[in-house]
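Record 1 of the preview.
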Amino acid sequence: MNRVKYYSSNDLMYGSNLRRCKTLIDQYDVGSRVGIDINDMIELYNAKKYLDNKIYFIDWTEEIVGNLRTAVNKYFAAVAKFVKSIDSNSLISIYSEVEFNYRNDFWELFDKLKVYVNITEESFQKFMDISKVTLHELLKCKNITDYYGRIIREKMLIDTSTVQILLDKYEIKHKREREPIYFPEELSYSDKEIIISNYIDSKDPNLNYLRLIANIQSSKDKLGISPKTILRAKRKAEEQERKFFEENSGIQMETSVSFSALQDEEVIMSSEENSISATYSTKWVDNNFDYATLLNNFIYLFEFVDMQMRCTFVNKTSEMGVFERFLLTTSQNAYDMSFAFEQKNSLSMLQMAAYYEQLLRNNIRLEAVIEWFFEEYLSMEFDARNFKVTLPSANSTYLEKCTSIMPALESVLKQFTLFVEDGHIDFELLEIRSEHLIYKSIPSLVDKKFVYGFGEEFKTVIFLLFSDQSGLGYYDKTEESYSNFYELLLKRELKIGEIPDYNLSKIRWLIEQNYLLINEEEIIVFYDNHLIVILYDLYRNDVVVYWKYSNKGRLLIDELKNKNVVEYESSLFTRPEHNYINYILNKSQFNNGLDLRNRYSHTQPNSGEDERIHNQNYLIFLRLFIIALIKINDDFCTADEIKNYV
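->
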């Protein structure tokens, strides 16, 4: 199609369309072009949209722009007259002539110019029956949807695309802003239930859609779907999954953890494609039985946290591939789970299981080590007295352990909250305070602890420097592609003259905002390497710890704060961490959460369930306990370090 087509104000490839736009208007001006059919009218409408949105070439003068705007507005009067003349007799024939790329524009004009008042309901019903118009095209137009609400509702009840449209509006997570969709007032909650129910019972429903329906949360449900229908979707999805894996092997992922008495190195890690193997030396454990070292193993041996004490097995957008970020169908209320996330969590679970057994072989219970930390270590090291905790006994079943460990964890976190607020723990006050524990609200001893990216400038600089979608990672000179612009600048000397014209505005923005500069050799370099390290850390981990940086780093962070590029927060857990905790424990935030806390506190698990399931869940609880312990210890350590700064 060699006609003018407007896509959006953010379209980076508008150049050819904008050139056609001026040529088109010039042709109408000199009389060499005359609008004769619906596509000519829609093309003028697209040209008008460029000018209405103030999209011009830099070399266009105010006079050129003014002349173009005047001309296109004059010709649009003819467009409006043509479109408004469409009636019940001409709709089918005119729409059949509309080029495919212009269909949405046709309905925009139809809606804006209120052409629907010329078309009877009977005629529009006939049109929908014989034309190739889709529900999605019509439902983007509010006036049309309202005017023909009754017959559009009837079409929604029988059209197979309706389920996708419903889920697209209410459930599916969109990575980019989408055009709004409108439903007729005549479409009731019971209608939506019928549509969803019929889809579940259909011959070949899409597994992704079944999973979305199965994970709908009743508290956040805008579809009005009953629990019984949700359960039917869950069972149908499980049935399809069984059939699928009978015929397909899927992607094999292997993770193994072991302890070796013959190995001298503390740890040997190997990674190959989709497999990870970790072998740890029993000599290290056997020679270091002091409780502090046994806990430090989770930091330095198993790497449950990084050097800023951030939990390492949370999901990170930076670790997700293009397919996972943009092409997977997921719920807007779901916790994102990438391949990397699954692999990290599998590894940490095996580490916990193997280490727990290794300690038992040496007559050490990890539960006793955790009790020592709260009841003795905190008092000795930080004068934080009176912490009390009782973990499950050795003789209790795993079901009993799962039932009792979460109250113990919540108790110590509430004790820590009281200590932060009052400097001591009053257990009588703790008993009176019965509010539900909100993990993101647990305070910190440290002011200005966490740093998060904030605002449009942050989003833009992160996108331009680190995203694989910015278009800046390609090096024309050698025709090489890099992951992002940051990697390109690290590996190549790139001169400003080598930047293609269509990318120059992006580079100029980075220079104007003092993220890049041009040196004497015309080479693009980072304005401040320390600043870029901080930004890269924020990109990779979504959060940085203010006090883990040097004086220079903290000054740079303060400058970013003054520019409204970052914001501070003080809490025990980072945002990614409390999101992860909510994913593990409940479904208050994410509809795909494991809901383990509620599983053992609000309902009685099936007594006939395999003990291995409770064993695995107990290890998940223990892993969470260890993370909380590490975070509390780091909070006390950081508070002490800050006192030394002062």
